[in-house]
Amino acid sequence: MSSRNKFKPLDSDHTKKFEDAAKEYKNIDFMASLVCRTLLYLGLRPNEFIHSIPAWLQREGRHLKFVITPYSEIPGHDGICTKGAGEIGKNNPDGANLHKSGNPCYTCRKHGDTNGFEGKTSNSPRTYTLNSPELEELGDDLEWFFEQHNKISFGNDGVNRRVRNVAEHAGLGEVRGYRELSTQGKVPDIAAYDLRHTFGTRLARMDFNKHEIMAMMGHGDSEMPEKYISYTGKRKENLMNEKWDPDIY
Q: Where is pLDDT greater, at 100 or 140?
């Protein structure tokens, strides 16, 4: 597999194509649409998305808020999780309840659970008010999903697979290039973190300063916010060089 640039935010045109495809995909694969719109509109880390729980959705008045907060209890997998007991628990011949020891069982580890959610940085806990038409629709869909389920039942691979499916639906594979995966053939070169970086550069284009971007995205320092701002400035400079015509007044 060829190495890929880890900082590859979508430009404005490709973002719009991806967003439209994510909305359309709601009728094809609701969960894929939910994943892509949540990452694109809120800039979550994939790990934050897969640890989302119903308690993170809080309604205040007519608006929902998405409140990322640490938690220590591991949501159970109804009909799946064995609490670490028995053969399915793996490496647990005594059949003890591994959850009581503070360690997730094999099944929960396989589904992406850890001992809970702590966040990558001290700024990871943060709140988004879902108060625009797109965010209100996203909030309604998140609320509906969490009325049926108490957690996300897949890990980072599941997130990236859904992002790639929507990217392919958007026709962005040929636009952004392909990367070879020896076991899976060709897939669009767009991953979950590209959507987070897209959100960050979008904030920079809206003239959020580095401290505001840190707060919005849960960064522990200003390195990435400064990168978003620098990248956005270079994009504007490139557009100026490409489009400036001294003969037009």
A: 140
The pLDDT assigned to 233 comes to 77
Q: How far apart are CA 133 and CA 186, in angstroms?
A: 35
The torsion angles phi and psi of 86, rounded to 5 degrees, stand at 75, -170
- Parallel, antiparallel or unpaired: strands 126-130 and 57-60: unpaired
- Only one residue has tokens 């691979």, namely 157
Q: CA-based Rg of the chain, rounded to a whole angstrom?
A: 20
Q: Which of 119, 114, 144, 112 has the alpha carbon at shortest distance from 33?
A: 144
Which helix (H) or strand (E) is 63 found in, with range? Answer: strand 63-68
Side-chain half-sphere CA neighbours of 185 within 13 A: 2
Bigger pLDDT: 216 vs 177: 216
Note whether 189 and 178 are within 8 A (CB).
yes
Q: What is this structure's pTM?
A: 0.75
Pair 224, 200: CB distance under 8 Å: yes
Which segment of 35-44, 185-194, 201-210, 214-223 scores lowest on mean pLDDT? 185-194
**Integer angstrom CA distances of residue 87 from 67, 75, 84, 97, 154:** 37, 21, 9, 12, 22
Q: Does domain 12-65+131-241 have CATH number 1.10.443.10?
A: yes
> Is pLDDT at 180 greater than 50 in this prediction?
no
Closest CA to 66 of 152, 160, 136: 136
Q: How far apart are CA 228 and CA 76, in angstroms?
A: 38
Question: Do the beta carbons of residue 200 and residue 9 sit within 8 Å?
Answer: yes
Q: How far apart are CA 76 and CA 249, in angstroms?
A: 65
